Amino acid sequence: MNKRPLGRSGLAIAPLVLGGNVFGWTADEKSSFAVLDAFVDQGFDAIDTADVYSAWVPGHEGGESETIIGKWLKANPAKRDKVVVFTKVGSQRGGPKRSGLSASWIATAVEASLKRLQVDAIDLYFSHFPDPNTPHEETLGAYAKLIEAGKVKAIGASNLDAGQLTAALRASEIRNLPRYEVLQPEYNLYDRDGFDGPLRDLCLRENLGVVTYFSLASGFLSGKYRSEADLGQSQRGGAVGKYLDERGMRILAALDQVSAAHDARPAEIALAWLMAQPAVTAPIASATKVDHVESFGQAARLTLSPEDLAALDRASS
What we know:
By secondary structure, the chain is α/β, with parallel strands linked by helices. It has helices spanning 29-41, 64-75, 103-117, 136-148, 162-175, 198-205, 246-262, 266-275, 290-301, 306-316, and strands at 4-5, 12-13, 17-19, 46-48, 84-89, 122-127, 152-158, 182-184, 209-212, 282-286.
């Protein structure tokens, strides 16, 4: 499978990233291992998680996803060199002393993530959310120490707008500090406003890698949610109701049309659309079953025509 460079990080990945948010939540350890095995067997190689996954589940405190991935890596040592592991720091997980992007918290959090993942180095370490209380210079300085120590290979940021990302890149340049090489924004056929425009243009201009989250709009773009009655099909259904409007139905109709032309599933078309966007390195997509991963392989093999892309763009405008 063709690899795509993640900006100037020195890392290159296949064109789809496995989302680890479901590990330890809607996918137990056995199911997670099966998904991870199938993902690598398909030729993919990048896995995304965060120290906060899955703190929202009653009885969890965060780190459950990293722990499962770490157990899988330990059970499959030959696969460590075949995968690129992303994780994140900075989300709320137990109050102000266990969140944010201060140098002290990053130094503590990275050790916990390394231990749970059972790795010597994190390939790509993300600032999960902006921290208005910590200067960029402090955060980037903390990352510089981790890179120098060999605990982190490259850094990225999630959920930054164009102004925040510009400020962070400027701080890197002025202070001669590591820069964010990859951005992780919310982006899909429905949710486009946050990335299209200045943020996308900045990523292209600065040669940043882009890996999108909520790539299937919480499952809406799979086509299985078409009315309020469908929302009870999964634990994520509650997040889908906002898409059940006229524009959402127009997007599903376009997905159905293009899917029929390619004998593909709507989710495969939605992922292929993302892979075809000039600014996008790879979408992130989660899976709880092996057949979901097989569908990812189908999406990566699809080539959408200019007419297909135009139809999807018109529907989502």
